[in-house]
Amino acid sequence: MSATQEVSTTPIGRRTPRVDGPVKVSGMAQYTSDFHFEELLYAVPVGATIAKGRLLKLETAEAEKMPGVRAILHRENIGEIIHSVPDPETFAICEERRPPFEDDIIRYYGQYIAAAVADTFENAKAAADAVRATYETEKPNVETHLEADDDPDLIPTTFGEKHRLQSERGDAEAAFESAPVKLDETYITPTEAHNPLELHATTAMWDDSGLTLYDSTQGVVNLRLILAEMFALPKEKVRVISKFVGSGFGNKLFPWPHTALAAAAARQMGRPVKLVLSRKMMFQTVGHRPRTQQRVRVGATLDGKLVSLQHDYIYQRSILDGHHEDCGETTPFQYSVPNLRVTFGRAKRNIGASADMRGPGAVPGLYAIESAMNELADRLKIDPVGLRVINEPKIDEGLGLPFSSRHMLECLELGAEKFGWSKRNPGIGSMKRDGLILGWGMAGCSWIAGRFGAEANVELRDDGTASVACATQDIGTGTYTILAQLTAEKIGVPLDKIEVKLGDTLLPEGPLSGGSLATSSVVPAVFGAADNAIASLITIAANTPGSPFKGYREDELKFANGKVFLKGDGVKSGVAFSDLLQLADCRVIKGSGKGDQTFGVEGSKFSTHSFGCHFVEVTWQPEIARLRVARVVSVMDAGRILNPLAGRNQIEGAVVMGIGMALFEHTTYDPQNGAPINSSLADYVVTVNADAPPIDVHFVEYPDTEINEVGARGIGEIGLAGIAAAITAAVHHATGVRVRELPVKIEDLLG
Ligand code: MOS
């Protein structure tokens, strides 16, 4: 059983508690707004109270005289901030390119028109409240019904140029017309707000070395590039630090105007300036998942084979920006269908820029496609699991490429077994327990996989410790722990002897904490860095006078479990790297590693995605109109799971968020002034502990070595994909009501 023992001693795949857990629970971990500096000033932005029009007059005199106030900044005195433009060299991304105060036109409610700077937060807030604005006001367009704007086929978006005719094969229209069974439905998802507990925050300061920003960001490297451009600095003159992030969900992926505002204020004041958004501003100026309206047309044979699939979606966007909500991302490959057409359109609204939000595109997209599949199954009287099995593709029919690894059928089989799906009676309201009506539903899911470019350093130190460094960041998902595990795997020392350094642009360039790609991206960089450090150690071992390996060739030496040893002799005879470094009088040796970007790069031989499915039970009490999600079984095919504890936690969190998507979350805009109305955590309802059911998470573990050496794909966002369709199917099964506009409201269910 030596093979098994070997597997069980590797840190990879072991249930590993967070290495940063102790500093977090003891309050020692410093989040962006926890850092304090001498002479610190506080900035509070002033937001427009109209959503469309022009700023005519700003009265600041009263505010300027208030206690502790150092400045009221506005268009006349902010100084130059350059409008960043997409750079094909760097791919640096910004969801809202317009710098604060660039012109007097108001395009959305909350748009910054001024900022108060004072010696305390309270004084800055009071002064911000005292600034008076006069507007020329027009009626904003926050209309919820979406009609596509008259855009050309090829449009520039935040993520590059996109064709509105996104994917096409066969003749979808003709095949739909002649299909024996047809389904033509429209599914709507509302605007949703990211609600990480940690508010967006920036502290900016300038000195001879340039601009330093402490920022609650999911991407220090990207933020540096954009801010360097906005302040006309070489990127080496901008340093971004993000040590701990109180979650992001995508709204912290790319910079927002308040970061530039803090930097400009610090420049103006010659002192560090801290700017922390209010919870209300979190609904206005830092992105949201845009509203989508998706028409799905499916044609099928009587025995359930898809013959045509058309997916035409429209999403809302802001006046100036081009966030692309790619609802059609999964449609071309999720199922086998010979005739397919996917198109999209956009509808401008007087709403702040939209943004990636956990599982962008695929999450609303799969809600529509998986809902259509469930409706088709009911219409055909075929079990919904069976319908998916019938239409399981052999290859990615959109790209015409094989999947690197797809085990959807095993996910369905395991999920059905763990849930007890075979006991399902498909009759509406036919299943009961303890006086409650039960509804059972399911759905499939998928999510992108691949790598961002990444670099890392690994150091071996003469005290027997090691370190790993990478300018990525941990947004609460477990990145500190994963880097420790990967380093421990190579270096063979316990996790508590490994220091992990993240969240600082002084470190080797690392990936965004986005797309659930960070883990897969850092694997080759960390392994390469460790291998190079080990190679240097072996050189030292073979060449240092007094070393037991002096005189041996380097290729006769090996390294494992923190020790160098002769190949023939086994690791037990080895010498610890700390001893060798001390002997060589070398305090530390360093290795560097690098992994290339594969995500979004043309020419891949494989289609790379994760897959999975959810099974959901709801309970329904018609007497009091009480709907609950009672239990969930989720099965994921996400490659090798490096840390089952963190991986499971990611899926559980995503399912909890998915319950919010299905039953609670939506931002509503006031048609009069364009303000997000429910812009507080009391009014924007999210899933809380009392709403969260038992969640049974399983992984079918097939290492995907196309992605990286250990076979790990991503494991965050996929958990949110599909879950809303599974819940609405369960609601239909319990109540007979088919809800096609999220969230499901109690009113929808009152016959
Ligand atoms: Mo995720 S939307 O890539 O933070």
Molecular structure report:
With 751 residues, this protein is an alpha+beta fold. It contains 17 helices and 29 strands. The strands form seven sheets. The protein has a seven-stranded mixed β-sheet with strand order 3-5-1-14-11-12-13, with helices on both faces. It is globular and about 85 Å long. The N terminus is likely disordered. The site of dioxothiomolybdenum(VI) ion has 12 residues, from loops.
Bound ligands: dioxothiomolybdenum(VI) ion
Structural class by helix and strand composition:
alpha+beta
For the record, give the distance between the C-alpha atoms at the N and C termini, rounded to a whole number: 62 Å
Low-confidence stretches: 1-8
How many beta-strand elements? 29
Summarize the helices and strands and which ones pair or pack:
Layout: H1 2-9, H2 21-25, E1 41-47, E2 53-59, H3 61-64, E3 69-73, E4 105-106, E5 112-118, H4 121-130, E6 132-137, E7 154-157, E8 160-163, E9 165-169, H5 172-177, E10 181-189, E11 201-207, E12 210-215, H6 220-230, E13 238-241, H7 257-269, E14 273-276, E15 292-300, E16 306-317, H8 331-334, E17 339-348, H9 362-380, H10 384-390, H11 408-419, E18 431-433, E19 436-448, E20 454-461, E21 466-469, H12 479-491, E22 498-501, H13 518-543, E23 557-560, E24 563-566, E25 575-576, H14 577-583, E26 588-595, E27 609-621, E28 626-637, H15 644-663, E29 695-699, H16 723-735, H17 746-749
Parallel strand pairs: 1-14, 12-13, 16-17, 21-22, 28-29
Antiparallel strand pairs: 1-5, 2-4, 2-6, 3-5, 7-8, 9-17, 10-15, 11-12, 11-14, 15-16, 18-19, 19-27, 20-21, 20-26, 23-24, 24-25, 27-28
Bound molecules: dioxothiomolybdenum(VI) ion (MOS).
Dioxothiomolybdenum(VI) ion binds at residues 218, 248-250, 253, 356-358, 360, 514-515, 717.
